[in-house]
Amino acid sequence: MKRRALFGTAIAIAMVASAGLTMAEVVKIGVLAPVSGKAAADGEEMVNGSQLAVDELNAAGGVAGYSFELVVGDVGEGSADAVATAAERLLGDRDMGAIMTGYASGSNFEIEMMAEQDMVYLISANSSQTEGIISPSPDDFPTVWSLTPSYAGYNTEIVPVIEGLAEDGKLDLPNRKVAIIASDNPYSKGIADGMVESFAAAGWEVIVNDLLPFGEINDWRGFLAKVRQDPPAVLINTDYVSSNAALFVSQFNEDPTDSLVFIQYAPSVPEFLELTKEQSSGIVYNLLGGVLNTPTNPRAREVLDKYKDAYGNEPGTYGPALYEQVMIYAAALEKVGDPSDHVAIGRAIGESNTQTAMGAVQFDPDTHLAVQSNDGIPIQFYQINEGNRVLFYPPVYATGEFSEPAWMK
Amino acid sequence: MSILRIEGIGGGYGSVTVLRDITLTLETGENLGLFGPNGHGKTTLLRMTSGLMRPSSGTIQFDGRDITGASPSKIVTSGLVHTQQGNTLFGDMGVAETLEMAAFTKRARAGATARLEKVYALFPRLAERRKQKTRTLSGGERQMLSIGSALMCAPRLLVLDEPTLGLSPRLKEELTEALIEISNSVPLMVVEQDVELLLAVTDRQVLVEHGEIVREITATNTPDHAEIVAMYFGAQA
Amino acid sequence: MPVLELRHVTKRFGGLTAVDDVTFGVEEGELLGIAGPNGSGKSTLFNVVTGIPFGASSGEILFDGKPITRMVSHRIARLGLARTFQKDAEYPDLTAKETIALAAIYGRGLNRRAAAEAAETQLEAAGIGCARAGMLTTALSVYERKQLMIASALVMQPKVLMLDEPASGLTRPEIAALNAHLVKINKGGVTILLIEHVLSLLLSLAERLIVLNQGAVLAEGDPQEVIRDERVIEAYLGGRSA
Amino acid sequence: METLLATFVSGLVLAALYALMASGLSLIWTTIGVFNFAHGALMMVGAFVAWTVSEVGGFGLWPGLIAGVATTTVLGVIIEYLLIRPFYGQRNMVLITVMTTLAAMIILEKSAQIIWGARLKQLPRMIEGDISISGAVISAHEALIVVLAPLILIALWQFTNRTPVGRSLRAVGQNQEAAALLGINVPLTFALAFGLGAALAGLTGVLLGGIRFITPSLGSEPLIKAMIVVIFGGLGSLGATVGAALVIGMAEAFLVLTLGLYWTPFAIFLGLIAVLVLRPNGLFGRS
Amino acid sequence: MDWKLAAGLGVLLILPFFVTDSYTRHLFILAFVYAILASNWDLSLGYAGLFNFGHIAFFATGVYTAAIAAKTLGVSPMLTIPLGGATAALTALIVAAPVARLKGIYVVLVTFAFSQVLLQLILSQSHITGGAEGMVRIPALQIGDYKFIRDFKFGYYYVALGLLVLSTFYLLWLTRSPFGKSLLALRDNEEYAGARGISIMRARVLALVASAIFPGMAGSFFAIYLRVASPEVLGFGTLSLVLSMVLIGGIATITGPIFAAFAIFFATETLAGTRGMEEFRFIIVAVAMILVLRFAPGGLARILQVFQFKKNRVL
Questions:
Q1: Are residues C128 and C53 in the same domain?
Q2: Global pTM value
């Protein structure tokens, strides 16, 4: 009896799923997001950002005669079966026009599922994984595109920026030593490895190069004790988990050394400032594909304001990113006209050149990643200064000047 | 007036009936002994009296109040104190600590210090081992501690289950003396294998067999040794 | 040569000495009774001999001339030293027949078919009919369960059978039936050690009686004499009775 | 030398935290024989409630602390009543309650996610500023924990060893029937022990909330740490638990120094398995 | 085999011809995997009475065996499935060494600690396992020229169903064999069983190993099917989900956990598709678990059994 009832439900689901055999006037847009679990804050932003875009498009009367409806697929903690199931659910919907995500799995394995079914898939984070999957045969992935440029910039740009600051007399480097700590995940480790290479090539001495297990870190004192024995001019932490980074900052401040402190990604998370308060003043970080909120890119302020009006808080990266992803899809649909022609829409996206909150988006046909350049999506260096994020590099977008951290004076 | 009145008690564990229709009264100022073969329901009867088990039929009245099915702590509070058979103490507690804690109920706490002195006077061995952990005590000392802690509860009726279990003759002797002394101030209900001890300590004895009271012995019909052996081991001993 | 021999066996739990320097032998074919008041260490002695829990504190136990002092219980059972338990021992989720067959398979190494046949033979001998054999053991009567436990021991074809209070909880007619059954088993060549509180049964069966008190052997010899021994009466009934 | 001292101080901070995390778990285990998998989740609830009262409500830290501890105490009593009490006396009670408290953990964590969301939150520190102990610097808040933890544990020890009610907790833990026969209300004592254990969890959570970030999964790492400490010490007494907390806190600090942060958790887990296999009753347990 | 199982199997066999969308088929495939996990866990938990909290570790062993064998070593994906069974059995043998000697809560703790050690190992050996991010692009299944990738999961459905059917037959055979009965005997009365020649250590070790084989194979299939291996499989989430399937289905029934796996998986999936219910579904499963433990300790299977006569079982 139980079994029969189950099959009943299953078949009912199947029938609902296959109900619309002809394309309706409504195009569904899927969002793969961690709505439940540890990363739910990111997930919420992803859903909000795309909902904002969908509402705006619908209010404007739709695109090419179609209006939009948002469908959310929860990937939970990002486990493979959760991501695959959520992706399958969205993929199984015949009205699905495109699927958006900030990140879903960390490994981006779902890209293959999307490509197999020619689903339009726009993704924001983990560009090195995306690159790894797509670059061996980019033609197999005509519908998958990443708004984040290659992470190569993270590896290399830091050295010239720091040396430039020293040359301009804005930063006094006591030596040419660097200490680097990374967390054991491809993002953090990959960037740390790249930095080690770049620093070594520029003639720096890498005195500490440590690796941490990935996850929550309760105490940095052991590592910091090692650093304090021989203080380097630059101290780099590429662990991107913001709570870890905040603890790092507060424990560094207990007994600061004469070092420039650089932390990967974490300081860009909205609550980082709230959590560290004045302690983070002086910390440097950079961003690729983050919101380029500067007077020369008014679009960023515009999107941020819209988001804030709708949801009452300032978003991080994923709200604006998903908003722009939906907009890029909408523009491509406008051009192609037929939402069921996924491959054509994919190609249209690949050819697009759009000014977004993150900068000008253009895609590299070899990797399907957005192109990094000062005219495209730039790498942005920020310094936290008394609770404000000061964009000091590249100079064309700069909103302020770098100032030497208080503990180095 | 009777201090304990057990009427038509029956019950057991799950589907196994251990007790069938037991009726007993303990008059004020009287000490009662129970004996009989193992596994015939004496311990079960005591457990029902002290609230550790719920009888499936019958009523128990203590001091005129119905205590059938009441919780053990309520029953102790009212003054009926039960000392279990065997090694049932708190292994990690010290001797003095156990005795002090045993005066737990409000009624017992009043006058606890005086009673503690009395217990030490009754069992000087316990006084010598105040600081010792219970698990390091010998069998006899544990038995003394059990009885001692029951006395700390300020009993108005003390129910003892096999107080001499596994003790050497010398210790038995000592314990018997102590029990006689206790019985001067507190009425006792004792389950014991040692019939001679029962005869020495209690005024009236009943034989429990197959969950029933099959015989009662009073001062007027004291049995001789052969009779006891017969009662105990069955007819052809 | 005794089939089972205990030499100075002692078992301690913390500060308590449950079995105290016990030495005796059991001859082949004998029916040895073991008595003693509550808490005198009879069951613990059985446990120590059969490896529950593992190992005596000191001393030596020989079975068939081989030391079994440090052997785990299932090996001892397979050697031919079987025992029953005082408490209701059964497997609530198995039937009577399964219970016996399992002992035949694991305790004697029979295959499934032979074990099923052996189980049927034992069930018949134990007086558990076909209809009851397929029932869960929890559905059986107290007497049937006692018989089942003995049958599951016998199916292993033990040399020595150790019975721990088989008569407790039985009615008089049932005890009589048990008595006859045990005589038959013993006559069939199985050495029996019997712990029993029902003294009438013990006295009618035992050829020799050992009385334990406080874990040590108090008296040993002809049952009728031992039972009149002053020390035994004192241990059982108290000092001033003698 | 300075490095060693810094490591020692950091070990001390960890030990104090671990002792606090584990004390409630240990108390519930020794009294009721329940391994409370919801212990970490209760810490999390304590921190969230304290945050809500002090930051959102604006009542300040102390009322927040009181509210947090009070809430977890009540929750502990509720968990005992609904999820533990029905299973007393069952043959597999230990294992059944592992499952029911695991369910409680899920319910608490997911409810917290629904109520408070996933954004990071933090409580203000009890005392601001840093303290330097001959070169080793720690925050005053952590110094407070190092001072507070032994005080709380001594108070707990005094309570369970010197007061009648505290002694009754231990008595019930060692022998329920014998305790009942002294007039101790066993069900009430169980509720008390669970409430007290939960209160300790709540207090630990509030203290943690000042140095870590409050998220619905705040308690999962402390739960595992508390489990390790309790197992390491032997599932017996408060003293063993505290001893184990010291050993593990120090081991962790010095392992980080020598082995690095990377291999430390692995080494500790391996040590745990070794202890369990070689001495199932724990490092300080009786065999 | 009773007619209900046969009927159920018949329906599952023809189902893919009527259900053509890949999402529903995907759900069935995952339900099959969960059913294998839950029913095999029931062997060690329900029959052997071993409260093994590390059962997921066997599954994870299979997952990583397949990932490493197929991707790094280039073993044919089809072969990795039996290989996963073998490595999981080996893992079980290692865990069994301490577990065979422990009791009660200690079994919980050792097995849980073991799964944590495995997790740490996976995280730390990132050059082999991919660390926290896991491994992707594991080669897909291919038999002869038949590629499983673009058939809307038709082939995968039958592979998973085949595994479940094999596993179920295996479990039913095992639990009805003398070995299965000896586990029940040990679980309910260890001393008695020991005194009847049953080796406690041997039975425990065998039970753990026997209960690891199919979860290992299911793990390998899982990795090959999703083409990904990630350490989340060792989290509390999977553990409590599968545990709830065993308990709600009814321990020591084998078929109970299988039915429960279907019911719970489809129920949570339906809730997952409802916006705003994402967190609630876990709470609902947890509450259901408590209610079953409290009011129907035998689980769903026992509730259903009340309505039918208990057949005589012969060894």
A1: no
A2: 0.86
